[in-house]
Amino acid sequence: MSFRSILGAVAGVTALALSAGSAGAQEKLKIGFIYVGPVGDYGWSHQHDIGRKAVEKAFGDKVETTYVESVPEADSERAIEQLARTGHKLIFTTSFGFMEPTLKVAKKYPNVKFEHATGFKRAPNLSTYAAKFHEGRYIIGQIAAKMSKSGTIGYVGAFPIPEVVSGINSYFLGAQSVNPNIKIKVVWANSWYDPAKEADAAKALLDQGVDIIAQHTDSPAPLQAAEARGKFGFGQASDMEQFAPKAQLTAIVDNWSDYYIARTKAVLDGTWKSEDTWGGLAAHMVVMAPYKNMPDDVKKMAEETEAAIKSGKLNPFKCPVLKQDGSQVECKGDGALSDEQILSMNFYVKGIDDKLPQ
Amino acid sequence: MRFELTPRASVAPFMRTLAPILAFITAFLIAGFVIWLLGRSPLAAFQVYVVQPLSDPWALQELLVKATPLALIAIGLSYCFRANLWNIGAEGQYVVGAILGSWLALRTHGTDAGIWVLPAMLLLGIIGGALYGLIPAFLKTRFGVNEILTSLMLVYVAQLLLDYLVRGPWRDPKGFNFPQSVTFDPAATLPTLGEASRVHYGTVFAVLAVIVTAVVVGRTLFGYRLRLTGDAPRAARFAGFSSKNTTLAVFAISGGLAGLAGISEVAGQIGQLQPSISPGYGFTAITVAFLGRLNPFGILVAALVVALTFIGGESAQILLKLPLDLTQAFQGILLLCVLSADALVSYRVRIIRRGGGK
């Protein structure tokens, strides 16, 4: 390569990089995604990335997507702003910890639309969205209670935040609905994604006589630990059947594709508005993977429960809901706890023989 | 056949200057080769990684923001490392400094407390970090406990303490039970240098720390004592220098600067306490200290270089869609090249044939 051609290449690249900053009306809509974990986690971030790819597939040449993975929450403002200033007009930040940084950048870039997953702070150009995972957890709780021989089921939690706590409660209420004497053990991994820790947590549970493992962490490690011991478990965030074909009973799959496509379409049509979306099984934001490795009657029960939740006949947090000490939780919703109560849940329900770390 | 490193009798000063430059070129060549293997243009990568961040005012500011905590902590660590004391726990001292400083911010939240709040917070940050750094120092001088182990393990203690505080007593009562404190009042927020800038006064502290350290190490008896204790402990004892006092002093300085970095980051950049307030600055700073060869100005440059690899890595993900793993691999390659170049300048590699050895 001659010196001249190198020079030419550098100039070309510079022009390319500079042109990346300006986006005219006729140009593609650039959409950015910020992930808290690696796209290869086969869990939370992986599912968001599937949503991103679905957007690309649905809109083809009209859009261009970019992602930044494994962004530390305490140092995320720069990455978000970098997307905003490189011409991205719609930006999804996909973890709770990105809330304040997203808010700050949104104020600075009023012409860019922001979407923050699982948070509660909104602005005219900042929407929030999340999924009612606890609906799926009620179903797997029922399956767990049916399938458990020891009568003790386990749960690997990431952090004791409301989203995880409401999941544990829903799981346990589901289990209790088929076996009032069921017991649950909870172990905290204190990480969203740490396969080694998650596996250790699952092994600790199995050593304590647990024979069904549910998890609210992002890797397939707990499920794989169950598979290795010939026990059962559930996939989290994505269908993890390939990692544990004998152990996975079903999985609570996050389906962001429909939402991401709808929001992209809204921006393209000019109808985007700041709003709060919290969808569950009925909205297809939560999808159950095929029910496998279980007897037909258990499968039938699971399908019926799923249908009942979808139709609104069954609410996992139907009143009365009792706290651990037996006191009744005030019923602020329509025959069930209100959305806000579920989104800020920081108590265990009666029957969970453990102390919630606070 | 084996290799042996023998010290060179004399090293030309210009070789010492040239070594890091050659190391950088080598690192870029290796990284360029990897990028070429990935089927991308190494020139485009170089442009996005290095040229663009250094020619764009926004990116230059971000460079300072990112380099600030790294430089502050690494300067502190250089005191320890010079004296041959291994403080691996700067991350913990950073966290404790942030906690103690934030205590005041939360105590005065919503009151009319005046301008004294911020200086007092910074002072508390320094005190917190210094006291926390003194624990391993005290254990070493009093009981002979290995400071590498204690300082490292105290990191986890500090992180869990922070975790407890933001989930429990210091949780924002209006935050839906999410683990985070309230956002600090303006009186408790470190001002930025300029209106729309993210660069805060922490950067000024870092530059001051560099200048003061250059004077202290180069021109004072204390600096001489440090170097002597590190290079020739016996000689230092004969000279009447107490190794105990040196140990306590350097850990206090190191911890204090890490604590200052912690409170500056929380009060200047993040604006609240969260379970995670550092993407591993305390550990990355160890790399920075050695990249800068424990020289104050070298550390300043090294902090900027390491910050550049982070920011360039993000740009590469966004503009070239290169994987994040490449950034991390590049940081490793760079450190290896610099350290190898250093070793090769000071030592000669001799190949000793079998039988020729001991």
TrEMBL record, chain A:
Domain of life of the native organism: Bacteria
InterPro entries from the UniProt entry: ABC-Purine-Binding, Peripla_BP_I, PnrA-like
Signal peptide limits: 1-25
Keyword annotations from UniProtKB, A to Z: Signal
UniProt entry tagged with the keyword Metal-binding: no
Residue span, ABC transporter substrate-binding protein PnrA-like domain: 29-304
Pfam families on file: Bmp
Record-given protein name: BMP family ABC transporter substrate-binding protein
TrEMBL record, chain B:
Membrane topology: Multi-pass membrane protein
Membrane-spanning intervals of the chain: 21-38, 58-81, 88-107, 113-135, 147-166, 199-224, 245-264, 276-292, 299-320, 326-345
One Pfam family this sequence matches: BPD_transp_2
InterPro entries: ABC_transp_permease (IPR001851)
Keyword Ligase: no
Localization annotation: Cell membrane
Keyword vocabulary terms for this entry: Cell membrane, Membrane, Transmembrane, Transmembrane helix
Main location: membrane
Listed name of the protein: ABC transporter permease
Source species of the chain: Microvirga puerhi
Organism placement in taxonomy: Bacteria, Pseudomonadati, Pseudomonadota, Alphaproteobacteria, Hyphomicrobiales
